[in-house]
Write a structure and sequence with these properties.
The complex is a heterodimer of chains A (about 110) and B (about 120).
Chain A: E1 4-7, E2 10-13, E3 19-25, E4 33-38, E5 45-49, E6 53-54, E7 62-67, E8 70-75, E9 85-90, E10 97-98, E11 102-106
Parallel strand pairs in A: 2-11
Antiparallel strand pairs in A: 1-3, 3-8, 4-5, 4-9, 5-6, 7-8, 9-10, 9-11
Chain B: E1 3-7, E2 11-12, E3 18-25, E4 34-39, E5 45-51, E6 58-60, E7 68-73, E8 78-83, E9 92-99, E10 108-111, E11 115-119
Parallel strand pairs in B: 2-11
Antiparallel strand pairs in B: 1-3, 3-8, 4-5, 4-9, 5-6, 7-8, 9-10, 9-11
Chain lengths: ~110, ~120
């Protein structure tokens, strides 16, 4: 099973600041990584797929980079609605796995 | 507009069974692999199962293998999850999700709102 380690576990920032979230895979997954945003009581929302492609309707504030084992989700300038939990997910090999999540909270 | 609507969640005793459904609309259901993902209280997302477009390719997470059965009825645009021998640690919100991409095996690009399964005596 491919493990995904997200860091940091919690990120405390203010609106307008830049957020950088990391996801490291236990083995190479090429570019088969997605990022999701999850808010309480809501369905997860796909942000980035295949490492760096923004999903339909996702603002350009969100960007993804990386391949192999190291991936990054960047939010260029935080808006109040961006504070949530973010998960990475790999689909390169079965079983599909998720990272444990990074909680982005308002400082 | 893509819509996924889960139903069937309930309170069930340990060892019991439950069947979840996910009604799909707004897209060609038979062209996309479909998935179940769950989130236990206070925990992260956990992939449960994936079924291919025709039902011929099926995958399960280790924690549910042998107890859960995924299926689909393309004539009814509906995804199912039969859950048997339920345990307390199966308590979670269960989401259905569509796989996107050109081949229908991409990232999970649309999700339902989820249905709550509680396993308790």
């Amino acid at each position: 099973e491919i493990g995904l380690t997200q860091s940091p576990a919690t990120l405390s920032l203010s609106p307008g600041e830049r957020a950088t979230l990391s996801c490291r895979a236990s083995q190479s997954i090429a570019s088969s990584l997605a990022w999701y945003q999850k808010k309480p009581g809501q369905a997860p929302r796909l942000l980035i797929y295949d490492g760096s492609n923004r999903a339909t309707g996702i603002t350009a504030r969100f960007s993804g980079s990386g391949s192999g084992t190291d991936f990054t989700l960047t939010i260029s300038s935080l808006e109040p609605e961006d504070f949530a939990v973010y998960y990475c997910q790999q689909r390169n090999k079965w079983p599909i796995t998720f990272g444990q999540g990074t909680r982005l909270e308002i400082k | 507009e893509v819509q996924l609507l889960e139903s069937g969640g309930d309170l069930v005793q340990p060892g019991g069974s439950l069947r979840l459904s996910c009604a799909a609309s707004g897209f060609t259901f038979s062209s996309h692999a479909m998935n179940w993902v769950r989130q236990a209280p206070g925990k992260g997302l956990e992939w449960v199962s994936t079924i291919g477009t025709t039902g011929g390719n099926i995958y399960y997470g280790d924690s549910v293998k042998g107890r859960f059965t995924v299926s689909r009825d393309n004539s009814k645009n509906t995804l199912y999850l039969q859950m048997d021998n339920l345990r307390a640690d199966d308590t979670a919100i269960y989401f259905c999700a569509r796989r996107g991409g050109i081949d229908g095996w991409g990232a999970f690009d649309s999700w339902g709102q989820g249905t709550l399964v509680t396993v308790s005596s």
